[in-house]
Amino acid sequence: MSDKTILRALRGETLPTPPIWMMRQAGRYLPEYRATRAQAGDFLSLCYNPELATEVTLQPIRRYGFDAAILFADILLLPQALGADLWFVTGEGPRLSTITGPDGIRGLKTKDDIHDHLAPIYETVSRLAQQLPKTTTLIGFAGAPWTVATYMIAGRGTPDQAPAHHLKDTDRATFTALINLITEATIEYLSKQVDAGAEVIKLFDSWAGSLTGQDFEDFAVAPTKKIIAALKHRHPGLPIIAFPREASNGYINFHAKTGADCVALDNSISPEWGAAHVQTAGCVQGNLASRHMVTGGQALIDDTRHIVETFRNGPHIFNLGHGITPDADPENVQLMIDTVRNS
Ligand code: CP3
To answer: Fewest CB within a 10 Å sphere: which of 118, 198, 227, 301?
Structure first.
């Protein structure tokens, strides 16, 4: 069995120092990322260029020695592979063609027709598997179906996911068909990432917090469970991290309900609550507020130590509660890492 620290934590080991990586660790806060992105031309060209995507994935590993590297890609590449139009508006974010009814789904491809489009991503994974230091774990990822569906339906990021809720509540059949298509395609996409060398898979359900009651069970829990079961069937022992962001009480029993080896916590919940209600069921990841990467100082040190201390008695991977933002100071990332490793 591998002795990489992240894999040990994912097997349920309590380690003296938590392994550490950071959501969006390859990103605009790094000058070397901005340079490579300029070389690629734009964000999507960077995602589909295996040489440059490998380079930006490696940059934070070289600079900081994180314990894990996450494939450089985006959760919206899968909708694009399914036939959605996708583009990024500078300073605003992603734009996609919208799905408002059954016609929108009929125009999409099937789960078996995505791999030609996604071949450059698999190529990036296999280059990373060869080039990463022997102690660094390679994480592949996808969006969870609900979160991906919110973008495919609205055609953009939305504060309250209203268009997706509207379709779910007015045309359940179309909405369910879309969730099922994304679920099936995600299984194929992630399975290929594992074949190419990803050692861990993470599912980002960034908008899980807007699902409540039975909807949370049907559209956050059930698709995640289905993806995890299929991946573990094909790749026995594959560790999986689930991130039902802002799920609040939905975090309780999320390991058991979905089969995830690790549940990533956002920073809207306290470490004490996470340790008492989530870590008791398995490994947790998180949950320092991203703003500390902008503001730094003693508050960063205090909150980092507090998180390490509070999760000390069980399996824990240190991370932020959400992605690092472009205005972050690279020095503060180093301060966080030094604080974790010297706590
Ligand atoms: O974590 C990593 O370093 C790996 C790469 C990664 C990116 N996006 C690169 C990216 C990962 C894991 C994602 C996931 C992702 N993408 C999510 C889920 C996680 C989350 O943040 O909630 C979502 C919702 C998306 C969709 C997306 N991509 C949005 C809304 C945006 C625009 C917002 C922004 O930060 O600009 C993106 C663009 C994006 N994805 C960037 C990066 C590095 C910035 C693009 C650039 O360089 O201009």
So the answer is: 301
